[in-house]
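Researcher: Please predict.
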Amino acid sequence: MLETLPLFHRLQGQPVIILGQGEAAEAKRRLVERAGAVVFDDMQAGIDRCARLAFIAYEDRGAAEADALRLRGAGLLVNVVDQPDLCDFTTPSILDRSPVLIAVGTGGVSAGLAKQLRLRLEALLPESLGALARGLGDARSALRARFPDMKERRRALDAALAQGCVLDPLEAGSAGRIEGWLAGADAPQGGVVEIILRSDDPDDLTLREARLLGSADGIVHDAHVPPAILARARADAVRIVGDAVPDEAGLWLRLRGV
């Protein structure tokens, strides 16, 4: 189960309230200004401007709790620095390959762990990842023209972006291959693939099985297939408990438990 739901807020030109002084408050100010927000350090002024988010950086927990209650009463979501039990949301460690953003969070449990994970990912992801994303965005109309069907379009992209393939996101030159790929791309065939699980542990999935789970249009599974396995599937994939695969186009998985 997800303990928190990660969301990306568009803050360009939007008011955000930041209360408090010192390094912690300044760090939050720099963060939201980097996202284009307009910072208010007066609570009522921010409320009057219809702010939706607020940060509180007080050393006094009682004062922080009181102001958090007032802000929630005005309809805002509140982050209280170093007090995760008083937070409606937490701020992750951010890896920036704009427009690609990767947020690593621990729900406020350990900011240090989130930072170290982000640093590891920094070493893995090339700076060209942003260029790949922008190139795919620019090619959206051409991609839709070549693959009018959404499922075919998704499968074609999944195949091209897979590890070792023409648009592998971890390969520095992938952005320059978009046009050539699109000119000759064919839609991968759908069908039914059966996976017989070896255990209830999702870490025991092979790389191929994990890729199939992440790209399938629908999953037909036994009732006792564990939620931890099903969580590896696309969130919008159709899920059916049973055995019969619907007569629908696309890539379907039949999952059988141990």
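Model: The first strand starts at residue 15 and ends at 20.
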